[in-house]
Amino acid sequence: MNIQRxxxxxxxxxxxxxxxxxxxxxxxxxxxxxxxxLVNAECYxxxxxxxxxxxxEFFESLVRAVSGYAQEFxxxxxxxxxxxxxxxxxxxxxxxxxxHRLIIHSESAPEGFESHSKNSKRPPIxxxxxxxxxxxxxxxxxxxxxxxxxxxxxxxxxQPVTRRYGGAxxxxxxxxxxxxxxxxxxxxxxxxxNLIPPPQIRPPQPKVDEQTSSTxxxxxxxxxxxxxxxxxxxxxxxxxxxxxxxxxxxxEALLNTVPEITDPSQLRALNRQVYNQVHPAWTKRSGLxxxxxxxxxxxxxxxxxxxxxxNKEANQGVGQTPLPxxxxxxxxxxxxxxxxxxxxxxxxxxxxVLQVSPWRGYARTPEVIxxxxxxxxxxxxxxxxxxxxxxxxxxxxxxxxxDLKYRVxxxxxxxxxxxxxxxxxxxxxxxxxxxxxxxxxxxxxxVAAPNTKEPLAHFQVIFKPSGTLEVTPWEGYQ
Length: 478
What we know:
The protein has helices at about 55-75, 130-145, 165-175, 185-190, 250-255, 265-280, 310-315, 325, 375-395, 425-430, 435-445; strands spanning about 1-10, 10-20, 35-45, 50-55, 90-95, 100-105, 125-130, 230, 290-300, 305-310, 340-350, 355-360, 405-410, 415-420, 455-465, 470-475. The chain is of the alpha+beta class. The protein is elongated, with a radius of gyration of 26 Å.
């Protein structure tokens, strides 16, 4: 299936076309497909009729050069990554404070672009951009890196400049930015690359009913568009610290000092824990004008230890999400030191649907954690027992129009020990199935029971719109 991804700004549009690798497992069949094989990349710039086009090598070189030059431009520290003429297809040259030359070394130059090279065999394309166009291109690249369903294995490593260059950076910005450049858009682009320090802000005091005399809960208020959308919970530094002052910590700085959880099976289990925390707490589901996308840091026990806004709307609309109140309370949990951290992408959609997925996707197909019942005779009997129990409890006329798919685990006695939705409609219509009531009657809660050493038999249970029920042995995530 051909997949397209489009990242649009007023002066720049990136269009990527490619395919999904069918050998790689997707989290949900109905979710947005992953573009993992890039076939064609096009970059449209305002003022030019023809796009810049190429394959994966061209696109990777473009994002490296754009990011490197943006770092150089904002910090005034030379970055060779932006001018690597020998090994890169794309490079940048600074003309003056408001003009930047984009150079593409290619086999042929499309019509509409001027070529200044004397080499007739490989004439480079040279395009002059103003600062507004440059930072629209920077933001389009940033949107691509924020999209975990497009070339998820492609990452970019940038080192921030040292603080001693801060004065030079500020002077350069004052000289380089013309009146036409929006100050906020430039600041956002700069902060996105960790190149200039964000302005200091005074966080508002928590409400009276959120204050306690014995514990301090980290809260993250909405931040202005010109500040880094970062929040993370940290322990109170001293016993005398004010209980009303939130503690803010850079999530990326935390991730640079602790190991990262990458095991697909563990990520799958943590994915469910994150969803189970956020889903019931998200009560304000109306009024969103655009999807709010965040990057979460999650400890091995499921505690949310930090989050960072991915798009501008998420930065401004954090108050419409439950994330500030879900950060772990240092008074009730040991401090985060060298614990491994998992990263997730969470989306609060305008339609009121919550989406949670691993930040880097799954490196391979996840497996169910815990001991399993594998004896075929036992599983056959448990299969029939589970079917009878669910069939007897399922009544009413379905309102859903697509199959609801679940993984259901039972112990040796046929008692439901765990269940999870496998597609989005299963999340949306779970109340029309008997599973929540059956699970709640046993465990007293709809939240998944913790993993134990008791072996379990796993099955796929499908509720069909026609009223048909299917129960089959589990064969793994599809």
